[in-house]
Amino acid sequence: MALPTIQTSRLSLRPLAEHNRDDIIDLDSDPKVVKYVHSGRPLTREEAIQDHQERLSACRQIPGLGYWAGYLDDTFIGWAALSPLQSNGGTFHAQKAEIGYRILPRFWRRGYAKEMARELLRYGFEELGLEAVIGQTMAINEASRATMKACGMQHVRTLYVEFEDPIPGSEDGEVEYAITREEWLELQLHSK
Ligand SMILES: CC(C)(COP(=O)(O)OP(=O)(O)OC[C@H]1O[C@@H](n2cnc3c(N)ncnc32)[C@H](O)[C@@H]1OP(=O)(O)O)[C@@H](O)C(=O)NCCC(=O)NCCS
């Protein structure tokens, strides 16, 4: 199943494609964007290209799951994902996915991350029949936490992971947020 193009009120979410390579290089080379991801430093062009290829291959694992490039008219603003989750045994969950997003700083704080994430939750629960969606971020990443919270996701646990080259703030841990299909349906009832 090819990923569909998804429309939000202001954005068009188009399946991430090979031609987004330069968009991803722009995102991954921006220090503000990578402050709390990867190793906390801008990626080189080669690293960003590899990152892009890994995302494209993630889009081929579970039908309907993957990465979308967000466009305001025809301008790329960033990406959002419902990506496949691997269990400890290495197999992919068919009914559980991980939400994620990354936006160019000039488009921050206009509600775009929330808009993309809310629509991907709707798509995941209504159209893919997912059972749950989780999201992880560094505890100090307030913007990412607020985005998950604004979508009705709740903090479920904090993980403390040892890194070889830790990003400042990683001592506060990694937080996991989650929402089940039942919780999402309940929220829809109350938002009508
Ligand atoms: C996280 C990110 C996608 C948020 O994008 P955004 O479009 O600015 O977010 P929105 O405008 O939709 O805001 C969503 C919520 O986060 C809050 N928020 C946004 N930036 C914030 C910040 N710097 N500090 C605190 N809250 C913030 C908003 O107020 C809003 O919450 P509300 O609805 O309760 O008011 C963006 O900051 C980003 O790309 N960061 C770098 C990449 C990254 O860290 N991704 C997540 C990795 S797990």
TrEMBL record:
Keywords: Transferase
Source organism, top-level taxon: Eukaryota
Keyword field contains Ion transport: no
N-terminal signal peptide: none
Domain N-acetyltransferase residues, every copy: 11-182
Pfam families for the chain: Acetyltransf_3
InterPro entries assigned to the protein according to its UniProt record, in alphabetical order: Acyl_CoA_acyltransferase (IPR016181), GNAT_dom (IPR000182), N-acetyltransferase (IPR051531)
SUPFAM superfamilies: Acyl-CoA N-acyltransferases (Nat)
GO molecular function, one term: acyltransferase activity, transferring groups other than amino-acyl groups
Coiled-coil ranges per UniProt: none
PROSITE patterns for the chain: GNAT
The name this protein goes by in its record: GNAT family acetyltransferase
